[in-house]
Specification:
Keywords: Coiled coil. This protein has about 290 residues and is an all-alpha fold. It is built from 6 helices and 2 strands; from the N terminus they run ααααββαα. The chain has helices at about 1-40, 45-175, 180-190, 195-215, 245-250, 260-285; strands spanning about 230, 235-240.
Length: about 290
Amino acid sequence: MLRLVRETLVEAKAITCVNPFQQRFSAINAKMNALNTQVSGNFTSVIMEIKMRVAETKAAVGVHSTEIRELNHLHTAVKTVTTKVDYVVSNTQMMIVEDDLKKIVTKLNTERHQLKTDLEAAIKQIANSSVEKEKELEREARRSENSRVCMDFLDREELGFVQESMQDAMSRLEREVVSHDEFVVLADRLKRKPDANDIRTYIQQKIAGLKLQQGEASHEAPLLGSVPVRCISCQNVVAAKLEPHAQQQPSKKEAKDVLPFTTSSVRHVQKQKLEAMLKAKAAMDK
């Protein structure tokens, strides 16, 4: 728009300045041609007419100079107005940009405050959950410790019970005969370094077998421990061990004959088995 105004002013100035001169010069040219034809007859009048035209031309030039100055003033005013318009437009654009920036800054501050609030809430939640998790872990550790202590206490009680049961079983086995199969099983377990469960299971099985043997035993059969036996390896006669009830009742018969080697070897196996059990018990006590 400013450019169009400037171009219009320039064109108006040019038209205003050129058209009068063109018209005047055309008129002067026509008159000069006319005077050229009349120069011979009326030279003086022609000179006067030229002077008058020159004076009119000077007056027109003065008028046009005034108009040109006015146009220059108008152009200066237009420039001033254009500068002010540019300033206003620039300030308006800056104000619009500033308003947009203020809105963006306000929005960013709101989002930052919201993010800060959410972050604080998340941190509090994580802290609470971590505290709860830590308490739960402490409770689990305490529970595990208590259960471990209880298990250790139970294991100790169980081991004591097993040792007492083993001692009772050993005292019973000293008066009983151990079969070859039982000796093989016990030797195999001793080679495998049996734990408390194996020993307890074996003792329970042995006690159950002894009870069954005591229930089914015949009172008329002679006890192996009540007669002298001979070992198959060393050929020595082992003295007989009398039972408590056998000591109270006097024997009606005299000393019996020594049993054959096959029967005395069982006693020797029993002795070896008892020695192995004593060694195992000593190893467990250590």
